[in-house]
Amino acid sequence: MKVLYIETFTRAMKKKGITQGKAELDGYPLTIDLDNLFIVMGRDSFELARIPGTKGGYRYFFLCPDCGRRCRKLYKRYLYFSCVSCYEIHRQTLSCTTPGCHY
Known about the structure:
By secondary structure, the protein is an alpha+beta fold. It is about 20% helix and about 45% strand. A six-stranded antiparallel β-sheet has the order 2-3-4-5-6-7, with helices on one face. A three-stranded antiparallel β-sheet has the order 1-8-9. It is globular, with a radius of gyration of 15 Å.
């Protein structure tokens, strides 16, 4: 299962003080526009949301393509990305009782 973290995209941009950029990530072309709140990575595109940060600036979130919730991580299972709630990952890990069990 592939996991995308919003910080992977925003951390370096915040340090450089930029809000738009093009690059390559894992062999995929990447376009990021924090002003217009979107990321395009290969054939996948993600809408973003932002809220004011506690020390100025903004905190960014993915909007889950399935439910629209703000999330810091998106999971890819099969062909689509979704949040932890849509994939019900939290239920699977909460019910795990075997020592050392990790989903």
